[in-house]
Amino acid sequence: MGPGRRTTKFPIAGVLVAAALLAFVGLNGGRTASAQDGAAAVDDAKPEEPLPIEMETRLEPHEVYPGDEIRLIVTFRSEKPFSADVVGGLPLGDFDLKERDMQRSEEDGKQVVRHVFTLVQFKAGTFELPKVPFSLKQGSRQEERSSDLVRVAVKSLLEEEGQKIALQQARDQAAKQGAAQPGAGGPGKVVQPGQNQPVGPTFNLPQGQAPAPGSPMVQPGQPPAAPGGPQPMQVELKPRDIKGPAPLIREDYTLLYVAGGAAAAAFLGAGIWFYLRRRKPRPIIVERIVDTRPPDVIALARLAQLEAEQLVAKRKLKDYHTRLAEILHDYFGRRYNLVDALAMTSEELILALGRLYLRDLDERVVGEVLFACDLVKFAKLEPDDASSLERLGKAKLIVERTKEERGGVQ
């Protein structure tokens, strides 16, 4: 080969080496970029940490009877303020919601939100309470969370009663069989209900006892026993009702009671009416003490008693003038047969006396005394002692001038 050919190979080899280096660098660069992109994707797909809120689901009680109240209590706790609200409707399933309550409080330095759901179940069995969805918010973050799954056992009264009766019957029958055959091995062992698909609650009798005539059926699926061998026996018990059926139509005696009461009241009222009608009224006897002394004697005695009580000195002026006017009214009523003299006013009494045309009576003096007494009684006038005693003297003078002479009327 000539020198010119060797010179041509070297540039071609250099180009191939440079291309190989560029390819290697590009491959490593692509792997690095892919690794970075993958790390970024992993960082983006990393789940966000849950909110620092504790949740507790509690059920009270875990065993109930149909119709009893079941309290589902969901409690949230956190050191920072937050809110916990139920999302949408409650998925109650076979349960009925009786009451719902939410309480906010602070316990041991933590904020507490407590949801209480009071539920009722009317069917017997074991049930799972549905999960209640909540929306939790704390600051700018929000999270969806559901309550824990809890179970409740609703026991049947009828089933419990049937099991008690069946257990007692099995014990009694086992005791009888053991007493009849002492070598049989004593009382039998109770079989759990549901074995070999029994019809009702079942119990095995002592081993070695053959079924008696008329005894209940043997458990289905049980292999036949060898002749002369032990014969397990099945006792079948059907549950009975705890309470008898209620009548569809209840007898109501309300109308009968009302009619009977009305009739009794009518008879009683009629009897009282006839009794009062036939009863003779008793005469009303009013005992009245009549003073038979002459009017002037009575009036002067009362005036003397009024003066002796010294009401003027005691400043009992109203009582004094009231009694003074009453004594004059009573005197004129007795003296001139004025029946209503005590009920008359001063004007009415003076007019009645004027119609009698009495010669010895000065009506102006009578009016002066009576009108002065009225001012004290009704206008609360307070006269001096001399004027008050002067009126008493005038009253005595009126009685003395108009008194009845013992031989006739003056």
The rounded Rg comes to: 60 Å
Helix content: 40-55%
Count of individual beta strands: 10
Distance between the termini: 204 Å
The ordered string of helix (H) and strand (E) elements is HEEEEEEEEEEHHHHHHH
The poorly predicted ranges are 1-10, 183-191, 194-205, 213-220
- The mean pLDDT is 75
Strand order of the largest sheet: 1-3-6-5
Structural class: alpha+beta
Binned strand content: 15-25%
The count of helical stretches stands at: 8
Explain what you see.
- There is one protein chain.
- The chain has a 4-stranded antiparallel beta sheet with strand order 1-3-6-5, with no helix packed on it. It has a 3-stranded mixed beta sheet with strand order 2-10-7, with no helix packed on it.
- Among the domains are: 54-154, Sandwich (Immunoglobulin-like), CATH 2.60.40.740; 157-215 and 230-239, no CATH class; 295-402.
- 41% of the residues lie in helices and 17% in strands.
- The chain is α+β, with helices and mostly antiparallel strands.
- A hairpin with a 2-residue loop joins strand 5 (96-107) and strand 6.
